[in-house]
Write a structure and sequence with these properties.
The complex is a heterodimer.
Chain A (H helix, E strand, L loop, with lengths): L1 H24 L11 H6 L31 E8 L3 H16 L3 E7 L7 H8 L6 E4 L4 H9 L7 H4 L18 H4 L3 E2 L2 E2 L2 E7 L2 E5 H6 L8 H13 L3 E4 L4 H16 L1 H8 L10 H15 L17 H4 L3 E6 L3 H5 L9 E5 L13 E10 L5 H14 L2 H11 L16 H10 L6 E3 L10 H15 L5 H16 L2
Parallel strand pairs in A: 1-2, 1-3, 8-9, 11-12
Antiparallel strand pairs in A: 3-11, 4-5, 6-11, 7-9, 7-10
Chain B lengths: L8 H41 L2 E2 L8 E2 L3 H8 L1 H34 L4 H9 L6 H12 L5 H8 L16 H26 L3 H9 L4 H12 L1 H17 L2 H6 L11 H11 L3 H24 L9
Antiparallel strand pairs in B: 1-2
Helix pairs in contact in B: 1-13, 2-13, 3-4, 3-7, 3-10, 3-12, 4-7, 7-10, 10-13, 12-13
Classes of the chains: A alpha/beta, B mainly alpha.
């Protein structure tokens, strides 16, 4: 009898626990918990307001006082997925900032160089938005989503005014490369600030092979065509390509820019009436890409290769050219056959094309400010970023990590590799417009669209469909997403 | 005190059982807590979220009822994922089972070296699916991979393909990796079951003129059906939950030829910020697994064989 009672009690207790768990799991999402520093802000002392308390639209115009604060400093949480060389550079900057502005403390966290915003996305999904954050390649489409959700704040008002180290009449936006700044300008709103800005839209060529066959780097598509024919005749594949959808459709996107121009692309992607992906300009771009597929100019086997695998035919002399970023040789590492010399030029123009010939695909990462900050913390965050991204600090950082950064006059040092130096000194400063290395938001609205478009791209490059069908399906896809 | 007539005797009896209960609960509690926090609660939470439209970023969740589930039925990408998963469910499952049975039986027949080969076959199970994917990425590499290099070496270069890029082969290439990785585990399981079969049954069969194949079909398979059923359940669960292998071997870019339910669920939930829809897909997989497991358990159920 007692064992029966105990059994029933256990059963009831178990069911009760499951019910409690179910009710707990089915609770609505709780409001985002503010970072602990928020509580500090509520007790924020009046003294910090004496340091030129700006309105939301006015960045501070003079440096903060260095006198010891009478009350507790404002603490900003700062998260960046930037371990390795950049971390050392950033730590130095943060230390200098705190020394110069003791009323602002930076609670910094440096995560692994993982990309894909995984750590920051997880934090945000958990309701914890860092006050200032940045990482490798946050997709512009992601930042646009973040803005809609209130995760990031619009920076346009601050960029239209001088930073604290600038004179009256200057703009903070002048500090950045024009091409890079456009990456995070969505619908006229600047949502994040560019930092790293590698170029994906440059044409690499094997200089040794080109010299061997008397070829010169092509400046136009006609010249590229001639080069491709010569290479193919001599047993060299003209093109090396990675087997990922975005690298494949990068060829189309770059040619589309050259022929149609970025304005036309934006109008078509934005579903402005009178614009279609089947318009003649895009058909021409598609036709040129079809040429490289039909003539078998691409090294066979590229389909299904990974990012690094796809570089190997180029760096081992199997293929003569490649559309990649300036870091190709560095990223290929030991795979590079040292008997070859490599170089790159700006992507060829297309005769009669309407696009800016200096236009370039860019991989840009950025820094954003939380959209949930109080006015005081927002001012502190803006001041911190102005300091962090000032030319002086940016140069110090570049001297350590050697990356190409989107801040004018503060670029790689002589310790950088020759390709980075060339890109930083010749290509980036003279590029007037850019588009994201990632198809969204320039060519499509979001990552889901990118995935679907990528599948259509794969069908194109594996020969299942032609360029006309590719563009038709692209148009259908755009309409489908516009109707969502 | 130990006298049953002593008034304190019953009290001691109650205290012992209570102490025993507390002892059990204390030792079970950590496991229960971990299971609850990491499995039960998230599962229930996912079930709840599946009825909402939620990006995972916003603080607002919009109740949509069964809309996420009806969307699944109309989603062409979901249909493609299910079709690919059915292929993964059938081909590697049957192939793994058959190969494992044959190998297990063979290893039980060989006079020596059986244990060594079991260990050899089991080796992939010591590695994670991510390692499998990285290894086989090299094997399948179109330029310098082992397969294409071998084909070129023996004069069959025309057969060399981009195995992970050719739409006709990429899913089969992934299935092959699953078979390679899974066979060892089931060889060990089935070997143990086969070893339990009394030898005199096989001796009797030999005396009756049964060939090895006939012994395998008419003796081995019927007598290990219990273990076969369990193996099928494991294989079905693995096939429906497969993620790491596909995701890593395709470098994170699955297309319509390799998209499976788990990778599509991951995309929806974490890349496209459709956490509600992704959760609905997870619930669908859970229900599907329940049904398939129930079918597998009930199929061919008979009285257990006793030797």
């Amino acid at each position: 009898m007692k064992s029966k009672i105990n059994h029933r009690l256990w059963t009831l207790a178990s069911l009760g626990m499951v019910l409690v768990l179910f009710l707990g799991a089915c609770s609505p999402v709780s409001p985002a918990t503010q970072p602990p520093a928020t509580e500090e802000v509520e007790q924020a002392p009046v003294a910090t307001e004496e340091a030129a308390p700006p309105t939301e639209a006015e960045p501070p115009t003079e440096p903060a006082q260095t006198e010891a604060p009478a009350v507790e400093p404002v603490t900003l949480s700062f998260v960046c997925e930037y371990s390795g060389y950049p971390e050392e550079a950033f730590r130095n900057t943060v230390a200098e900032f705190e020394a110069q502005y003791p009323d602002i403390k930076i609670d910094a966290w440096y995560g692994p160089w993982g990309g894909d915003e995984s750590y920051i996305k997880t934090q945000i999904a958990g309701g914890v938005i860092p006050d200032v954050f940045g990482n490798v390649f946050p997709m512009p489409s992601t930042v646009a989503e973040w803005y809609e959700e209130g995760v990031v704040t619009e920076l346009t008002p601050f960029l239209e005014k001088p930073a604290f180290f600038q004179a009256e009449g200057e703009k903070w936006s002048d500090v950045f490369s024009a091409a890079a700044l456009g990456q995070y300008t969505i619908d006229g709103k600047m949502l994040a600030l560019p930092y790293y800005s590698g170029g994906t839209g440059i044409l690499w060529y094997n200089k040794t092979i080109f010299d061997q066959y008397g070829l010169t780097p092509p400046a136009t598509w006609d010249e590229f065509r001639q080069v491709a024919v010569v290479l193919k005749e001599n047993g060299i594949y003209p093109v090396s390509m990675q087997g990922m959808p975005y690298t494949m459709n990068h060829w189309f996107r770059t040619l589309a820019q050259r022929i149609a121009g970025l304005e036309k692309i934006n109008a078509t992607a934005g579903r402005v009436p009178g614009n279609s992906w089947t318009d003649p300009e895009f058909m021409e771009a598609g036709k040129l890409v079809q040429e490289i597929i039909d003539n078998e100019w691409i090294e066979p086997g590229f389909l299904g290769t990974s990012y690094v695998e796809g570089m190997i035919p180029f760096v081992t002399g199997i293929a003569g050219t490649m559309l990649m970023s300036e870091s190709l040789i560095v990223e290929a590492g030991d795979a590079v056959d040292e008997q070859y010399e490599f170089d790159f030029v700006r992507w060829p123009t297309v005769e009669g094309g309407k696009g800016d010939p200096t236009g370039i695909g860019l991989s840009v990462d950025g820094w954003a400010i939380s959209g949930k900050l109080t006015e005081e913390k927002l001012d502190a965050a803006v001041k911190f970023l102005q300091f962090f991204l000032s030319p002086e600090q940016a140069q110090k950082q570049a001297d350590i990590h050697h990356y190409i950064i989107a801040i004018k006059g503060a670029n790689t040092s002589e310790n950088s590799d020759v390709y980075t130096l060339k890109y930083a000194s010749e290509i980036l400063p003279t590029s007037l417009e850019s588009w994201s290395w990632w198809p969204a938001p320039t060519f499509g609205p979001n990552d889901e669209w990118v995935d679907r478009w990528g599948q259509i791209t794969v069908e194109w490059f594996n020969g299942t469909i032609g360029y006309e069908e590719f563009l038709k399906q692209t148009e259908d896809l755009a309409n489908e997403f516009a109707g969502q | 005190m130990w006298n049953p007539c002593h008034p304190g005797y019953r009290k001691i009896k109650v205290k012992r059982s209570t102490i025993r209960t507390i002892f059990i609960v204390v030792f079970l509690l950590p496991a229960i807590l971990i299971q609850t926090l990491l499995l039960i609660y998230p599962s229930l939470r996912a079930f709840y979220i599946s009825f909402f439209e939620w990006s995972g970023l916003s603080q607002e969740m919009t109740y949509v009822g069964l809309q996420n589930f009806t969307r699944m039925a109309q989603d062409p990408s979901m249909r493609v994922s299910v079709a690919n998963n059915i292929y993964i469910l059938i081909v590697p499952t049957l192939a793994t089972l058959f190969i494992s049975l044959v190998l297990a039986q063979t290893l039980n027949w060989v006079p020596f070296g059986g244990e060594f080969f079991k260990l050899l076959f089991f080796f992939p199970n010591l590695l994670s699916a991510v390692v499998w994917a990285i290894m086989w990425n090299f094997v399948y590499n179109p330029s310098f991979g082992a397969i294409n290099t071998f084909l070129r070496l023996v004069g069959l270069g025309s057969l060399a393909k981009p195995w992970l890029g050719d739409p006709n082969f990429e899913l089969a290439a992934i299935a092959l990796v699953m078979i390679w990785g899974g066979v060892g585990w089931y060889v060990v399981l089935l070997s143990a079951s086969i070893a339990d079969i009394p030898k005199d049954l096989f001796e009797a069969a030999i005396m009756d003129g049964a060939s090895r194949w006939q012994q395998f079909i008419h003796l081995t398979i019927p007598l290990v059906r219990g273990m076969i059923r369990i193996s099928v359940i494991f294989l079905v669960i693995n096939a429906l939950q497969i993620f790491s292998l596909v995701f890593v071997i395709k470098g994170g870019f699955t297309d319509k030829y390799t998209e499976v339910i788990s990778t599509y669920m991951f995309k929806q939930a974490f890349q496209f910020s459709n956490l509600g829809y992704g959760s609905a897909i997870a619930v669908f997989v859970f229900l599907l697994l329940l049904v398939l497991t129930a079918v597998a358990l009930s199929f061919g159920r008979r009285e257990p064989v006793q030797f």
